[in-house]
Amino acid sequence: MSGYLTPKKKVWVADLVAKKAHGEKWAMLTAYDYATARTFAAAGIECLLVGDSAANVVYGYETTNHISLDEMAYLGAAVVRGAGNALVVIDLPFGTYEASDEQCVRTATELVRRTGANMVKLEGGSRIAPRIRALKQAGLAVCAHVGFTPQSVDNLSGFKVQGRDDSADQLRADTEAVTEAGADMAVFEMVPADLATELTAACPAPVIGIGAGAGTDAQVLVWHDMADFPAGDHRARFVQRFGSIGADLAAAAADYKRAVHTGQFPAPEHTF
C-alpha cells in the first residue's frame, strides 16, 4: 500500500515518459482547490489537471467556454499549493489562445506565472499545432487534447465519439501534428478503443485517455464524476464511480441539521 502514497520526489514529464517506455500505467484526476489537490497527492495521483471543466462543476456554467482566465488562475494557484509532488497541468480557457501564436504564448505564460502550474493544455489537432510549436519555443511544457474537444462542442454538433470510420485518418493526422509540434503529452477524449491503442503505441509522448479505452498510457477523470459528487448526476458512459462523496456529504449535512435542530450540537465538549 505504501507504494501508492505521495511520491518522495517531484513528478516530471520525463518520469511519465519513462513509465510509458516501461509499460507502467499512471493516473490523472482533475482538481480545483487546495484541499482536494492535497488529498489526491497524498493518495499518490501522479498528475493533477486544473481543467476548464471547472466551468461546469465549480462555477455552474452550461459549457466550458464560459470560464475566464482569471477564474482558471485562481483555481490553479490553489491546486498548486496543495499538489505536493504531483505534476500540475492547467487548461487554457476558450478564447485565450486561438487568435494567434502571440496571444497563445501571452496567455500561457501569464497562467503559469500566476499559478505555478507545470504544464498548459490546449484543445485541437492539426489546426492548433502552430500554437504548440510557439509554446515550446517559449520554453513551456504542453499537453495537447485531441478527439472530442469540449470547447468545440457546438462545431462538433454535440458530445460525439471522434475517430470513427472516415474520421479516423483525421485523428491520426491530428496526433502526428501535435507530436511533431512538440507536445509533451496528449489527451485522447471519446475515441474508439482500438484506434486509441494504435495511436498510443505510435506516439512517443505519453497519452492520457478519457473514454478512449484501456490501451492508453494513463487515464483521467473529472473527480466529481469519479466520486459521484453531487450524488445521482448523469455520468458519461466512460465514467466509473469509485466513491459516493455526494451521498456521504448529503447525509453528513442532514445529520448536522438534525443535531442543531434538536439541540444536540454543540454539546458541552464543544463549548469553551
UniProtKB/TrEMBL annotation:
Pathway: Cofactor biosynthesis; (R)-pantothenate biosynthesis; (R)-pantoate from 3-methyl-2-oxobutanoate: step 1/2. It catalyses: (6R)-5,10-methylene-5,6,7,8-tetrahydrofolate + 3-methyl-2-oxobutanoate + H2O = 2-dehydropantoate + (6S)-5,6,7,8-tetrahydrofolate. Binds 1 Mg(2+) ion per subunit. It comes from Corynebacterium lujinxingii. The keyword Transferase applies. 3-methyl-2-oxobutanoate binds at D52, S53, D91, K121. InterPro entries: Pantoate_hydroxy_MeTrfase (IPR003700), Pyrv/PenolPyrv_kinase-like_dom (IPR015813), Pyrv_kinase-like_dom_sf (IPR040442). Mg(2+) binds at D52, D91, E123. Catalyzes the reversible reaction in which hydroxymethyl group from 5,10-methylenetetrahydrofolate is transferred onto alpha-ketoisovalerate to form ketopantoate. This is 3-methyl-2-oxobutanoate hydroxymethyltransferase. Its EC number is 2.1.2.11. GO terms for cellular component: cytoplasm. Keywords: Cytoplasm, Magnesium, Metal-binding, Methyltransferase, Pantothenate biosynthesis, Transferase. The active site is at E189. Its main location: cytoplasm. The lineage of its organism: Bacteria, Bacillati, Actinomycetota, Actinomycetes, Mycobacteriales. Its cofactor is Mg(2+). CDD domains: KPHMT-like. Homodecamer; pentamer of dimers. Belongs to the PanB family. One of its GO terms (molecular function) is methyltransferase activity. It is an enzyme of class 2 (transferase). One of its GO terms (biological process) is pantothenate biosynthetic process. It is found in: Cytoplasm. It comes from the Bacteria. The keyword Magnesium applies. Gene3D superfamilies: Phosphoenolpyruvate-binding domains.
